[in-house]
Write a structure and sequence with these properties.
Nuclear Transport Factor 2, Chain: A; three-stranded antiparallel β-sheet; alpha+beta
């Protein structure tokens, strides 16, 4: 995370996804993933998480597991120094209210996400989070 090398970018990408997963799974404050993310999508996720907490809604299941990650390219023209591609297995999930009422649900799936990363002279930062598949 604190090395200006591809291994550091991959470590930050892994931390980011684990922190995001933890935040959604526990319905907790999104601070652990927000502290490393400058992407607009992170601000949107933060607002959604706050709304869900206020409405006493939470996720059941839906845990994300990284099955592989790799540095795939330099992202010329995007402001990123490196792109890390993550392959994820995601469990089936239900989004429920405190009463137990199911609001929505989804089956298990696999996802490929590209994290656009920027080195800020101290650590890697996520500046973009895009579905690749």
């Amino acid at each position: 995370m604190f090395q200006n090398e591809p291994v550091g970018a991959r470590a930050m990408a892994s931390y980011y996804m684990d922190a995001l997963d933890w935040s959604y799974a526990l319905g907790e404050d999104p601070t652990p993933f927000m502290v490393v993310c400058d992407a607009e999508r992170c601000r949107q996720n933060e607002k959604i998480a706050a709304q869900n907490r206020a409405l006493h809604r939470h996720l059941v299941g839906g845990r994300q597991y990284i099955t592989s990650l790799a540095t795939i390219e330099n992202a010329v023209g995007t402001g990123a120094d490196i792109v890390v591609q993550l392959h994820l297995d995601v469990e089936a999930a239900k989004f429920v209210e405190a009463s137990g009422k199911v609001i929505r649900q989804s089956g298990p799936k696999t996802m490929v996400i590209n994290l656009y990363m920027h080195w800020n002279q101290k650590m890697w930062r996520v500046i973009g989070d895009y579905l690749a598949d």
